[in-house]
Design goal:
It contains 13 helices and no strands. It is mainly alpha-helical. The chain is globular, with a radius of gyration of 17 Å. 47% of the residues are buried.
Length: 251
């Protein structure tokens, strides 16, 4: 598995890509474009797999534990409403994809990762990737509730890896599903795999009021702040701003 995006890589590099890493991620960006185009076509002609899928609503409820309560409290304190709602939708979509794929995931760690993954968009300063700031917030939460060292590293790596253009199951269930859930909500990637009820239910419970515009602006700021980072690569070569605006959700 590539180490790009892990917490150790992020600490070492500040989130800035070496030329060889950039070339690999450009291939991943191209693959994501192709996948998204095909999936959106299937949605348009009503042949997407999600139309026949079902996820029991009870499986998507937020878990209740000291970790999830601490993550909730921290997210409410730090995030504006648009990002807080996005974080909740990210959990629902990631958990739903995990259910459909039969993935055994620690739902508490996934929930904490989803609630905290974008805190760095509010807190980050300097020239390091915003997810490092998010990972520090996650570490504080993990320390507060006595999370194990291994689970804390899983939590932090899921956060620092989530905006890589391709995160596979080899990265671990939490990282894979966090990235997948965020991809559904931000650009509609893999929305075609989910039942309409899951998509509409998450938006009804956690509305997307102004999300596209606010997130596109935050991403542009991040891309400018971290030259050579993944946000800049996605914005420049992934048409990320356009992808946000054409995501299959009404605002």
């Amino acid at each position: 598995m590539s180490t790009v995006g892990t917490i150790d890589w992020s600490r070492r590099t500040g989130g800035r890509l070496a030329p060889s890493e950039r070339r690999v991620l450009l291939v991943d960006v191209a693959r994501a474009h192709g996948t998204n185009a095909l999936g959106r076509l299937l949605m348009a002609v009503h042949l997407h797999p999600g139309r026949n899928a079902y996820v029991p609503p009870a499986r998507l409820r937020a878990p209740d534990s000291p970790l999830t309560r601490a993550a909730d409290d921290t997210a409410v304190r730090l995030l504006p409403g648009t990002l807080l709602a996005h974080s909740h939708r990210t959990y629902v979509f990631g958990r739903a994809l995990g259910e459909l794929e039969g993935i055994d995931v620690d739902s508490e760690v996934l929930y904490a990762a989803a609630l905290l993954h974008d805190t760095g968009l509010v807190l980050a300063e300097g020239v390091d990737d915003f997810t490092l700031a998010s990972a520090r917030v996650a570490w504080d939460v993990a320390e507060r509730v006595g999370l194990s060292t291994a689970a804390t590293e899983t939590l932090q790596t899921a956060i620092t890896m989530h905006h890589s253009p391709r995160v596979t199951p080899a990265a671990g269930p939490v990282a894979y599903l966090l990235s997948a859930g965020a991809g559904v909500d931000v650009v509609g990637l893999r929305a075609w795999d989910l039942p309409r009820g899951v998509l509409e239910g998450a938006v009804a419970e956690h509305p997307r009021e102004g999300f596209k515009r606010s997130f596109a602006l935050a991403w542009a700021d991040e891309a400018a702040r971290v030259p050579g980072g993944r946000a800049q690569l996605l914005r420049r070569y992934g048409a990320f701003g356009a992808a946000i605006h054409i995501a299959p959700f009404a605002e």
